[in-house]
Specification:
The complex is a heterodimer of chains A (199) and B (295). By secondary structure, chain A is an alpha/beta fold. Chain A is built from 6 helices and 12 strands. Chain A has a single domain, classed as Class I glutamine amidotransferase (GATase) domain (Rossmann fold, 3-Layer(aba) Sandwich), CATH 3.40.50. Helices cover 29% and strands 30% of the residues of chain A. In chain A, a hairpin with a 2-residue loop joins β11 (158-164) and β12. The mean pLDDT of chain A is 96. Chain B contains 13 helices and 8 strands. Chain B is 44% helix and 12% strand. Classes of the chains: A alpha/beta (199), B alpha/beta (295).
């Protein structure tokens, strides 16, 4: 299985490093920068970065439409932080950033600027085990979830992780921690999606 | 982890999210909006771009807080601002304004010829300039969460930025090949903290994100610094002193993201109009070089 990490800007190396640390021989992490690169992928991670810059770079690379259509065809996609903003169907005050995708509304910088960035621990029942260390950097927040959306985690009543079928979003950065559980969870989603397609 | 260590980690992590991006100097709201629309990952709010500072002479200081606040209101990307080397109070003021990063910058006139700011007590992150590995590690030792090579700001001449980036890369690879017993000697020669020297030897990279700065005027300049190992670039006078700032800003953003692709670079380098006027470094007296400020 080829797991792509969108390699245009932001925390790209960190996600690739986490995928390599899973030491799962069935997965092959690749950096995606072009439409041919995307065609090789069975799944895609959109990393943190600046969402305005990422959107401009996606458009310039000709990746916006191919990602949207692959998403509609069921390709698993995970967006962290800025990636979550791009995957939300609605983005408060910045609708032009949305690639479509998950039935949620997201607000940018809900916690404030860098001096309000923080680390918080919260349970993610789907993962089991101890609380997850959430690293929030100028983080966005989910302010509405549609009917089909499963809330995976809340931190202080704020929704911080959601799943809708083959799409996953987190407003924090698991790739900046040593906790591999969410990366493993996403790989399970990808394996299930691949198995489904094979039927 | 205690609270200060946690904040320092968060501050280094913000810089990681800027990687592969361009940080642009802006002097007003209109320029900040142009920068954001061009795809900048952050803006640096300052009173005058370095080339204007060079022309104007005199003492150059922290910007008017009103101007910084107006830019914070106008854009959603991180807003950085500069303080004079060693000017603790300017740093206190910028922290209270809630800027996302402080640049303790040699482009402004130094306030203290002996000491840089002790950056550990601050919540707000600092980026500092460096010409070589020792200078970078001294700033990190003081608490900088990000490094930029100094280059020679306001010249439109990339030669110093290239020199500084190459120097840091070479010094890191020397450390990587050193035996453990050589590292204390290396720390002495570099005038750098021993623990950070050991860390660089082990990890074969700087402990924080490193951008290039100082003299970048074209998309090709930006791509060159990326090729030499920078993780992103700062562009000062190069954008808003050129003929078509919006087009040049966008082209530099695309050049940094696509630095490995000559065909894309050829396409985006076309039709940008005149770049800023450049300075030959031999025309500068030693005392006029910003990079010599700080130690």
């Amino acid at each position: 299985m080829h797991i792509g990490v969108l390699g245009l800007q932001g925390g790209v190396a960190e996600h690739l490093e986490m995928l390599s640390r899973l030491s799962d021989e069935t997965i092959n992490p690749i950096e995606v920068r072009t439409p041919p690169g995307l065609r090789q992928c069975d799944a895609l991670i959109i990393p943190g970065g600046e969402s305005t810059a990422l959107r401009i770079l996606l458009d310039a690379a000709g990746l916006t439409d191919p990602i949207s259509s692959r998403m509609q065809q069921g390709m698993p996609v995970w967006g962290t932080c800025a990636g979550m903003i791009l995957l939300a169907q609605k983005v408060l005050y910045h609708q032009n950033l949305s690639l479509g995708g998950m039935d949620i509304t997201v607000a940018r910088n809900v916690y404030g600027r860098q001096q309000e960035s923080f680390v918080a621990e919260f349970p993610i029942p789907e993962l089991g085990g101890p609380p997850f260390p959430g690293v929030f950097i100028r983080a966005p927040g989910v302010i509405r979830t549609g009917d089909g959306v499963q809330v995976l985690a809340r931190s202080d009543d704020q929704v911080v992780a959601c799943r809708e079928q083959h799409l996953l979003v987190t407003s924090f950065h698991p790739e900046l921690t040593d906790d591999l559980r969410l990366h493993r969870y996403f790989i399970h989603m990808c394996t299930a999606a691949c198995a489904e397609r094979a039927h | 982890m205690n609270e200060a260590a946690e904040q320092y980690a968060l501050n280094r992590d913000l810089a990681k999210m800027l990687k592969g991006g361009v940080i642009m100097d802006v002097v007003n709201v209109e320029q900040a909006q142009i920068a954001q629309e061009a795809g900048a990952v952050a803006v640096m709010a300052l009173e005058r771009v370095p080339s204007e500072i060079r022309k104007a002479g005199g003492v150059s200081r922290m910007s008017d807080p009103d101007m910084i606040k107006a830019i914070q209101e106008a854009v959603s990307i991180p807003v950085m601002a500069k303080v004079r080397i060693g000017h603790i109070i300017e740093a206190d003021i910028l922290q209270s304004l809630g800027v996302d990063y402080i640049d303790e910058s040699e482009v402004l006139t130094p306030a203290d010829e002996q000491y840089h700011i002790d950056k550990h007590p601050y919540r707000v992150p600092f980026v500092c300039g460096a010409r070589d590995l020792g200078e970078a590690l001294r700033r990190i030792g003081e608490g900088a969460a990000m490094i930029r090579t100094k280059g020679e700001a306001g010249t439109g001449n990339v030669v110093e930025a290239v020199r500084h980036q190459r120097t840091i890369t070479q010094q890191i690879s020397q450390l990587a090949g050193a035996a453990p017993e050589e590292l204390m000697s290396a720390a002495k020669a570099l005038q750098a903290p021993y623990d950070l020297v050991c860390q660089v030897a082990r990890e074969q990279r700087l402990p924080v994100v490193n951008f290039a700065a100082g003299g970048i005027a074209t998309p090709a300049d930006a791509a060159l610094l990326m090729r030499l190992g920078s993780e992103g670039v700062f562009v000062g006078s190069g954008i808003f002193n050129s003929q078509d700032p919006a087009a040049r800003a966008r082209a530099i953003v695309l050049a940094v993201a696509n630095y490995q692709d000559p065909e894309t670079l050829a396409r985006i380098s076309s039709g940008l109009g005149e770049a800023m006027e450049g300075l030959d470094l031999s025309d500068l007296q030693e005392g006029q070089k910003f990079a010599r400020r700080g130690w």
